TrEMBL record:
<dbReference type="InterPro" id="IPR010979">
    <property type="entry name" value="Ribosomal_uS13-like_H2TH"/>
</dbReference>
<dbReference type="GO" id="GO:0003735">
    <property type="term" value="F:structural constituent of ribosome"/>
</dbReference>
<keyword id="KW-0820">tRNA-binding</keyword>
<keyword id="KW-0687">Ribonucleoprotein</keyword>
<keyword id="KW-0699">rRNA-binding</keyword>
<keyword id="KW-0694">RNA-binding</keyword>
<keyword id="KW-0689">Ribosomal protein</keyword>
<dbReference type="GO" id="GO:0000049">
    <property type="term" value="F:tRNA binding"/>
</dbReference>
<dbReference type="Pfam" id="PF00416">
    <property type="entry name" value="Ribosomal_S13"/>
</dbReference>
<dbReference type="GO" id="GO:0019843">
    <property type="term" value="F:rRNA binding"/>
</dbReference>
<dbReference type="GO" id="GO:0005829">
    <property type="term" value="C:cytosol"/>
</dbReference>
<comment type="function">
    <text>Located at the top of the head of the 30S subunit, it contacts several helices of the 16S rRNA. In the 70S ribosome it contacts the 23S rRNA (bridge B1a) and protein L5 of the 50S subunit (bridge B1b), connecting the 2 subunits; these bridges are implicated in subunit movement. Contacts the tRNAs in the A and P-sites.</text>
</comment>
<dbReference type="InterPro" id="IPR001892">
    <property type="entry name" value="Ribosomal_uS13"/>
</dbReference>
<dbReference type="InterPro" id="IPR019980">
    <property type="entry name" value="Ribosomal_uS13_bac-type"/>
</dbReference>
<dbReference type="GO" id="GO:0015935">
    <property type="term" value="C:small ribosomal subunit"/>
</dbReference>
<dbReference type="InterPro" id="IPR018269">
    <property type="entry name" value="Ribosomal_uS13_CS"/>
</dbReference>
<feature type="region of interest" description="Disordered">
    <location>
        <begin position="93"/>
        <end position="122"/>
    </location>
</feature>
Length: 122
């Protein structure tokens, strides 16, 4: 089992798909990495040599922000918005949708389960 950026990637899958198990690498970056290293995308992970896995690791470490670093950066960006007390920061602070979605109905994922309001009987 290949371990890249602290993630065990599945061995039976194609390299291009397996790289997407790493947080911060999507379809485009996976194709770019395969092209840089010179690995055909249809090869499976278990067919890779140790040298190819090492080259993939080096490319990811040098050129991409993944896993813990990426999560830390996103958390710091959200914290910065909250400290600034801008509109987006306030929405994050109140745990409401940030990007203009309606909240009168829907938004249950963000707001949590509906809370009954006492005294509202017909």
């Amino acid at each position: 089992m290949a371990r890249i950026a602290g993630v065990n990637i599945p061995t039976a899958k194609r390299v291009e798909i397996a790289l997407q198990y790493i947080h911060g690498i999507g379809p485009k970056f996976a194709k770019d990495i395969c092209a840089k290293v010179g690995i055909p995308t249809e090869r499976r992970v278990h067919q890779l040599t140790d040298e190819e896995v090492l080259r993939i690791r080096e490319v990811i470490d040098a050129d991409y922000r993944v896993e813990g670093d990426l999560r830390r950066q996103v958390a710091m960006n959200i914290k910065r918005l909250m400290d600034m007390a801008c509109y987006r920061g306030l929405r994050h602070r109140r745990n409401l949708p940030v990007r203009g979605q309606r909240t009168h109905t829907n938004a249950r994922t963000r707001k949590g389960p509906a809370k009954p309001i006492a005294g509202k009987k017909k």
